[in-house]
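Can't paste images in this forum, so I'm doing it all in text. The chain is below; anyone willing to post the predicted structure tokens underneath?
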Amino acid sequence: EGEVEVTIVRDEISAVGWAEIEDTELTAEIAETAAVGTVVFDASEHLNRSEITGLSGPSALTFFVQETERPASVAKFKMEARSGRLVLVEKLDHEIQQEHLLTLGLRHKGSRDLIRLRISVTDANDHSPTFVRSRQEARVSEDALPGSLGAQLRAFDPDSGGNGLVRYEVMSGNDGGEWTLNEETGEVRVGEASPHRGEWVLVVRAEDGGEPARSETATLRILVGEGSASPPRFEREVYVLEIEEKTPLGTGLLQLFAESPDGGVVYFLGSPSPDEVAIHPISGLLRLKAPLDF
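Text version of the structure:
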């Protein structure tokens, strides 16, 4: 079930037939978990009834959806022509589309009036963190000093805000304190009790910040011996892209490729990174995830 909250925001466009307010862009908020059949918005509550007479028979009002900003929004909602209720007819997903902008229409006695409705889809904690690999292996030199990087764990949660904030914790396998784990970055480093030559198996949990929290575990096998792992190498040191401002969201922008003699390459964007792009941790495909505005 989902709750719907409707507020009014200021806009300078006027509309005859709708309520006499200076604003003609309304906003509605609905949870992505809202059930099909939920009434998202009731247009009849925003009418100027002092200017409208004869609400039944041939002169009855007719409500309709004039247009949507994105084609995908059309299939999500249905306007009841007589009641003015906008009903959810297909499940929403905040991770795919966070906002829907519709232009609603009103017909009465041969005239037609329009008003904009902006629907915000709020996030729910409906995804668990997912490790790039549930079983990972790393090699560390027996001469590595405390603080040296031993492995990099990566878990991803597509939820937004605190629901998608991932923290890491060692559940078992580190009783002697040979390793330290950064709970925010997932970096596993050599601890003060430097490990001797041998093998360690750590069970690590990634947990999100939702209420209730969701989590997943992974196994990290660390081999300590002679030599050290070689870092991955990209094909180029610098990549340059030209992107049009109207490029559709989700468009693939660049296919990155890196090689490592030890395998197991994981792609991620360094900090700080632009909010407009995202990279797939396994394939290395860079995609557009937010609108561009130059």
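Residues 161 and 279 are 19 Å apart (CA to CA). The chain has a mean pLDDT of 82.
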